[in-house]
Amino acid sequence: MNPYLPVLGIIVFSIAFGMIVSAASMILGPKKTYSKVKYSVYECGLPLVTSARERMSVKFYLTAILFILFDIETVFLFLWAKAFDGLGWFGFVEAVLFIAVLIVGYVYVIRRGALEWE
Amino acid sequence: MGIIDSLTAFQIQLITTLIKFVAILVLALQVPPLMVWFERRAPALFQRRKGPNRVGLFRFRLFGLLQSLADTVKLIFKEEVVPDAANKVFYHLAPVIAMFPALVVIMAVPFGNDFHIGDHLITMSAIRIDSGFLFILALSSIAVYGVAIAGWSSNNKYSLMGALRASAQMIAYEIPLGMSLIPMVLIYQTLDLNQMVLQQEQVWGIFKAPVSFVLFFICMFAETNRAPFDLAEGESELIAGFHTEYNSFKFSQFYLGEYVSMFTLSLICSCLFFGGWQIPFVSYQTLVNLTGYEFIASIIGTIVLLHKAAFFMWAFVWVRWTLPRFRYDQLMNVGWRFLMPVALVNVLITAGVLSFIRFGG
Asked: What is the complex's ipTM, to 2 decimals?
């Protein structure tokens, strides 16, 4: 049997399971009267001031961008780690160079203050 | 054995995969109610009070163990209130996305050694692929989408803030988490979790890579949004974080996902650093000789693994009631400025030492 066949089946089943469970609570729960206040967004009982579709701090966006950069480096390192024994000293030196470039980028990011949270 | 002989290899694999799948699913779904109960009883123990101890069966109180069952029934039969302002499609989608990766990832954990029925090799995990390790890492990060979508679609400022914080924190700690596992791949030279466990028969992984364990252990808490990194649901400032607008069973789906992924991380931690299903000083072969059946030896392995994972589940609660919550800038500083450089240096040192051992000077 193809080892990826159960993977597909399990992913499909898990999504279906989640949907069934959340549908169950929608169907089984009581439906009481509708009122404007009850179905408004929760803000500690006060009337809404503005919508939540506001501008957010750019820090979160920067974090996400930096995550993509460094996470891809991690993915490359996993492949090198798997082939470590086959590559020998050559592989080690190459990896050190690769990580050195990574560290230069990391120091640059720190010095530019991209990771400053106040 | 007559029945087994008459089946083809494909049928055997299909049937055993289904059995394993149902067994692991049942196991995984038992964890959240048990942990919810435990998370009320354990702080009671810490704070010298009783905790929930009333709900039981007929006259037996069973330490309040059925409290979670009562809660589940209550949650399912509650009215569901979807805010008018919410983005409906994504609002209903988010709990499903938050829950399903946890249920898929736990299927890839080796619960015991492979055993034979007749000539057929049966694995003790429902998903066995060569790169199972990468599969676990890749799928477990999907949970971030559930958190982000839940917070955005609720159209609530608290939800949005909680979701932004939680997702930024989860992705920030995913880098040291991934990097702390590279030394393990360097040491074991495989991406198959069961092979890693098999190589720990003599020495546990923690003695080969202690720094990796510390990094992984810290990142476990941040990845599951647990205290001391539970900024996303700092209740005094953000109410409940990204699931503020969720109620009835959709609310508990987030918790289901969280507890199952806590359990999965505990299992992976035991597999990588604490010998998985191996009993210290007793090899698998000894167990097979003692019991006479490979199957029974594998089941004993499962029980051992569950005990090791239970320790980490206890550690989750233990830490939560011992340490205060971090401030958000402290959290980000720890992740980016401390854990990440340490993880990088750890990779380099491990690789250097292994090069000397394996390739000579």
From this structure: 0.86
